[in-house]
Amino acid sequence: MMLYLRIKPLNNNNVTKNIVLIPTYNEIENIEAIIRTVLEQPIENLHLLIIDDNSPDGTASIVKKLQNELPQQLHLLERPGKQGLGTAYIAGFKWALTKGYDYIFEMDADFSHNPEDLIKLYQACTIEHADLAIGSRYKSGVNVVNWPIGRVLMSYFASVYVRLITGMKIMDTTAGFKCYHRSVLETIELDKIKFKGYAFQIEMKFSTWKYGFQIIEVPIVFTDRRKGSSKMSGGIFGEAMMGVIQMKVSSFFKKYNKNSHV
């Protein structure tokens, strides 16, 4: 694997620009609270992009109302329909890169990821020099609250399986609470990311690892949603497990070369 030097922030005065990406579909019960809580966190120049897939419950209308109150910090990217978690994040990554953001976070809208942990991810990147910081449920034991035991076991052993197949040392390979330095997203060929659902999170970590970027896992406590309905299913896990083998085999035929952006 190759190691890369981090580029400097693209904005003036070496002040970082930071943005949290939250994909939404029918999150009207959580959306206002998550927006306000995220933007209260003690991170400089922190903005928020909501990527909404035409939620029929009116999630986007709440975001638009709040934009009148938070016009500089709150942004909305509307898509015509539900197209998958991976495509939502890729659309958000591209938007953030074109706007010159340096650190790009991803998290869920339902408070399963605690917004107060954003600062931990940010410090892992800015102080410990991680290129990718992962909010890890399994770095220090099993830190999951309110999940049925069957789901805990399925998630935990999914990560064991991914580590076995890929060789990555990441404890929480399926985590969706992360912070990227922009150089990672500029290097990974986002249009060639194959998976759109649950396996997207695995593929992004695998690509980051294969390019030799520095990855740090930060222990967090994951709390299952209290409002709204989960989009997770056993079928999604099954698709991811087969996808990992395909991803590993495909990697034998790909060159992970340095990108001119880095």
From TrEMBL:
GO terms for cellular component: membrane. Pfam families: Glycos_transf_2. Keywords: Glycosyltransferase, Transferase. GO terms for biological process: glycolipid biosynthetic process. The keyword Transferase applies. GO terms for molecular function: dolichyl-phosphate beta-D-mannosyltransferase activity. Residues 20-187 form the Glycosyltransferase 2-like domain. InterPro entries: DPM1-like, Glyco_trans_2-like, Nucleotide-diphossugar_trans. Belongs to the glycosyltransferase 2 family. This is Dolichol-phosphate mannosyltransferase. The lineage of its organism: Bacteria, Pseudomonadati, Bacteroidota, Bacteroidia, Marinilabiliales.
